[in-house]
Specification:
By secondary structure, this protein is mostly beta strands. The chain has one helix spanning 5-25, and strands at 32-38, 44-51, 54-55, 57-62, 68-75, 78-79, 81-86, 92-99, 102-103, 105-110, 116-123, 126-127, 129-134, 140-147, 150-151, 153-158, 164-171, 174-175, 177-182, 188-195, 198-205, 211-214.
């Protein structure tokens, strides 16, 4: 029997083409791709990694100056672990922790001078427990308590001097009962009564304590 070299060559070429097509067009199971985007100036803006079409691993965003703006970690397309934002100066701006795409645990914001701007706690992506916001000087600006993302109980706001500006009561995130606003001297300025976030009555006073208006 005589071997037909022409037919053998055709068969081999056909097999090679098939193998090449498989290599080129069938994605591997653990395929990973690094994606980068740039500013018009050519400076790097963002770099992220994808696995099976979903975000995976470290994500970084940059200012056009090249300074780091944001860093976060992803797992199977959802944020997981430490999250941070920075001012262009390099000072920390925001920090928190994600669990399966939702904020969990302590969350803090900072002024560029590194003073604390806000602090609260998250549970399943919603604020839970005591929460405070500060003026840049460090004086408390507002404080209250959250339950499943809604304000509950007494909420207070302050002047930059630290004097009480107002106090309100919340029930399931709605204003309820007597709410007061004060002059910086400590004298009552306005008294409002709410029922399920609806204003029922308002009384206004001058700084001498005299009633000047009522609705």
């Amino acid at each position: 029997m005589t071997l037909n070299m022409k037919n053998i060559k055709k068969a081999l070429v056909g097999k090679l083409l098939t193998v090449l097509l498989i290599i080129l067009f069938v994605p591997s199971v653990g395929f990973t791709e690094v994606s980068k985007t740039y500013y018009k100036s050519g400076a790097l803006k963002e770099e992220v990694t994808y696995k099976k079409g979903k975000l995976e691993g470290l994500e970084k965003l940059y200012y056009e100056s090249g300074k780091l703006w944001l860093e976060s970690t992803y797992k199977k397309g959802k944020q997981e672990g430490l999250y941070r934002e920075y001012y262009e100066s390099g000072a920390l701006k925001v920090e928190g922790t994600y669990k399966k795409g939702k904020l969990k645990g302590p969350y803090r914001e900072y002024y560029e001078n590194k003073n604390l701007k806000a602090e609260s706690t998250f549970k399943n992506g919603k604020q839970e427990g005591p929460s405070k916001r500060y003026f840049e000087s460090g004086v408390v600006q507002a404080e209250g308590t959250y339950k499943k993302g809604k304000l509950k109980g007494l909420f207070k706001i302050y002047y930059k001097s630290g004097a009480l500006l107002g106090e309100a009561y919340f029930k399931n995130g709605e204003l309820e009962g007597l709410n007061r606003e004060y002059y910086e001297s400590g004298k009552l300025r306005t008294a409002r009564i709410f029922e399920k976030n609806k204003l029922i009555n308002v009384k206004e006073y001058n700084e001498q304590g005299n009633l000047i208006k009522e609705d």
